[in-house]
Amino acid sequence: MSRRKRTFSRATLFRRGVLAVTVVLSWVAAAPVFAATLENLDLRGVDLSGADLSDSNLGGADLIGADLRGALMIKAVLAGANMAEADLSDAILRGADLRDCDLRGADLRDADLSGVDLSGADLVNADLSGANLSDVDLGSGDLRGAETCYAIARDGTVARTACQ
């Protein structure tokens, strides 16, 4: 018996309490989510590792502790999202909008953040080791306590300060 693949391509999900989150959790694991609108949803702790969220709108979403390892999020809108303690290691976020995001304690090791807008983002104690930060707009972003060992800086140089 063959299973038909479900897709979130160009889907719009409105916040409808637990039902919306249940739908997202049951379909996302096996389906592409390209260009979906998932803004302001409660997605705390959800496993979106390896998902294609390119061009999706997750603005204002609650992604505390979410697993986004290796996720493809090119040009995704995450403005105002709460991604504290989220795992974004090896994620590709080229050109994404992360303005005013809460990324406190987030794992961004080896993530591709080239061309990302991080103005106003809270990156306190985030791990940016090995991340590509070329052409990143940090604006008034807060990097206190952030780990940047071997991160590729905006000018293309590799940061080796505070490497242990």
Count of the domains: 1
Radius of gyration, in angstroms, nearest whole number: 16 Å
Q: Output the CATH class name.
A: Mainly Beta
Provide mean pLDDT, rounded: 81
CATH topology, anyone?
Answer: Pectate Lyase C-like
Helix content: under 10%
CATH architecture field: 3 Solenoid
Structural class: little secondary structure
Distance between the termini: 53 Å
Number of separate strands: 0
Order of H and E elements:
H
Shape: globular
Low-confidence stretches: 1-31
Topology:
Layout: H1 18-28
Report on this structure.
Helix content is 7%, strand content 0%. The protein is mostly loops and 164 residues long. It has one domain (1-164): 3 Solenoid (Pectate Lyase C-like). Residues 1-31 have low confidence and may be disordered.
Keywords:
single chain; 164 residues; little secondary structure; Pectate Lyase C-like; 1 helix; 7% helix
Summary?
By secondary structure, the chain is largely without helices or strands. Helices cover 7% and strands 0% of the residues.
